[in-house]
């Protein structure tokens, strides 16, 4: 089989850096309208560094994707596992590998399917858990899944935020307090679920990875070292500082009981708002100027806040960006 039959698992990239990518994409090889070539071109034009192939219940076609990878563009192999009780993404599976989809909760097969993906170092993502169509509602327990897709792309290309995303975000946000307390919280991610022209990268996940490789990207997502952007026009830097010790998204900050300065630097959300969320709910809100660029700061302690995360919203309430939490200890 040609070396270009499947994409390489590593690209040159920019070494340790923030990388933008879309991990839920469909081509003409399942029910999408775009070819792999068209998707790769549009992904790069959208400012993405990586994308995942996630055809429904099937492996990536040999020869369809390998030639589209580049030194600065990684293609991750995956599958959207479309069961009768919900959909999930198997990311980082082997070439030609297929995860069984023809089952439901009562069949008791989900754990062995998750184990199949985990054995090869892959990532299991609960996809669009409140999608309003048959089999779209996610009925499996989140136990065993690594990540929750809280932001799924538009049903039509001009609507980047839907009500079902609001339900998924609220559910995930409520679960964080208990999950962080037990040390087993699941990060959030966002993907376009591209089927049509004009959808790819809306939204996408921005991941801090040690290199541009499948292993490093999935490790960054698994650790929560990521945030979700509506598009590449939006940029967020989010840190917490305690007496010179600094932590970023997905990291834990040891505070020694002292004051914590939390700072968000945002670009690309004109006249938007930045809200800070902790285990006490929404605790602070500030407005962004007309050009959408600004710095917002808020102070807290580990006693008052087990974690901090932010949401950036447009004036109409639609989300422009949201982060995974910084854990305060």
UniProtKB/TrEMBL annotation:
Residues 21-85 form the Polymerase/histidinol phosphatase N-terminal domain. SMART domains: POLIIIAc (SM00481). It comes from the Bacteria. SUPFAM superfamilies: PHP domain-like. GO terms for molecular function: 5'-3' DNA exonuclease activity; 5'-3' RNA exonuclease activity. InterPro entries: PHP_domain, Pol/His_phosphatase_N, Pol/histidinol_Pase-like. NCBIfam families: CehA_McbA_metalo (NF038032). This is Polymerase/histidinol phosphatase N-terminal domain-containing protein. It comes from Streptomyces melanosporofaciens.
